Structure formats: C-alpha cells, structure tokens
What we know:
The protein is an alpha+beta fold and 73 residues long. The chain is 22% helix and 8% strand. The chain has one helix at residues 6-21; strands at residues 41-43, 49-51.
Amino acid sequence: MRRLPKHIRNLWLLGALLASALPVVGMAQALDVGEQAPDFTLPSTTGEQISLSQFQGKKLVLLEFHIDDFGAN
C-alpha cells in the first residue's frame, strides 16, 4: 500500500484533532419562544459596551449579526 504524502498526512491529522475537539467546545443552544436569553455584552459600532440586560423591560429587541458583509471580495 502506498504511503500518503507528508502534507496530506498532516492535513488529515489536523482535521482529526479539530473534529475531536468539537464535542468539548460549547455550542449555543436555540431558545424556545418565551424563554429568557442569557445576558451578554458586545461592543457597539461606536465602541461602547452594550449589554442585552440594558434593554430588559423594553417591548422588542432585535439582534443582527453580520459577518464579512463589507469585506473585500
């Protein structure tokens, strides 16, 4: 049986290591309707820190996350 090239073996090993780490990494769980979302803090577009808890008691909160919308193509 032929031996795989070293770079292919290294890629396979890296993939296996990353796949084995997936169960360890916490994954976000979907919320049920009416369930309270966990509090978190993120920077705003102006640089100030905004927490979800700042909006508690307001009628509606819309969260939008954009990834690489305006990145170079």
